[in-house]
Predict the structure.
Amino acid sequence: MSGERASAAAVPHRAEIVVDLAAIRHNVRRLRALTRTPDGGGPLMMTVVKADGYGHGMVPVARAAREAGADWLGVATLDEAVALRDGHDRGRVLCWMAVPGEEYAPAIERDIDVSAYSLAQLAEIEQAAVEQGTTARVQLKVDTGLSRGGCLPVDWPALVDAARSAEERGAVRITGLWSHLACADDPAHPANDEQERVFLDAIEAARGAGLRPEVRHLANSAAAVLRPSSHFDMVRVGIASYGLDPAPGATGDLGLVPAMTVRATLAMVKRVEAGASVSYGHRWTAPAPTTLGLVPAGYAEGLPRAASNRGNVWAAGSRRPIRGTLCMDQFVIDLGDDTAAAGDTVEIFGTGHDGAPTAQEWAEVVDTINYEIVTRVGGRLARVHVDSETAATAREDDQ
Ligand SMILES: *Cc1c(COP(=O)(O)O)cnc(C)c1O
């Protein structure tokens, strides 16, 4: 990276997301090690980079994951898959969310593997491939009990037969069979065994119909780290690649490093008297004189308003409680009798290695999951990608 970029990024942002690509690489390698079998083999690794890389920036995360050996990348939408190619990714990519009438051609001509949940969807994909005079790579999804997307077992025999016929016509090649777990973060839940059993039956039916897919896959992050029986040929790992625990309470220390830090610059610091009430609705009143700090980020940046009077951040060497209502553009923290100044850095959440809270802690405060915390932050936050192994820095607009 050029010195120019580094100095541009050194200008303090009002508030920013900092993503460490070295942490992504570390996590992908670590997950490979965690899923390795005793003989040194193990499933293929798909890194899931949908939803702008869970808020971390899809293309830079994809590049880091490939550097760390990701065999596949997974996204939800066709547009996301095309954007990966526009970002120069050349490896295998699977996408799995489309609606009737969507244009498959851009994905098919870019060698994306697309998913079919139904006969109608398979027919649409085949038609797009025929129109292009090419062969579409298709993975069939079976609903093994999540009751979300995918083909119900009762309809599966017809789907695999139709898929085999489409293969014989030449416009389709079935590259994979897959499904998705409902309760992977609760490894003892009986639904896991049941879904594995239904998946095995579906694989057998596909085999009986003459399909010879390259990959069969079922596991998300939680199943990747907790249920080797669910690994099949590949694991689809999203949240754990970003360093967050996919099953808090069920996992031990996985040795992952959170890749995202959200920080801001204190806009103002003021001393108030006892009895001063803070922010909209005066939902907090100072019981004694105290020093308040103004953090210039709010729910427009995706910070949950439910953290009003509940969450905390790291500033001036300590945890600092949020006081009063978290607003659209800003919130107020309590610095007590400590010294702090406008211009000081506030860490809203980060790796957890430096005393600041983690995305997991924010999730617990507002009764949600870490996924939602990192995926929804954005708004007016600048996003900067750094690499703690090479000391490189790149602002988003340089990507
Ligand atoms: C998002 C998603 C994943 C990744 O889930 P994590 O829990 O983040 O690992 C895997 N498979 C499918 C189908 C998904 O939609």
Remarks:
- The chain has twelve helices and 20 strands.
- The pocket of pyridoxal-5'-phosphate is lined by residues 48, 50, 96, 180, 220-221, 236-239, 246 (CB under 6 Å).
- Residues 21-242 form a domain with the TIM Barrel fold (CATH 3.20.20.10).
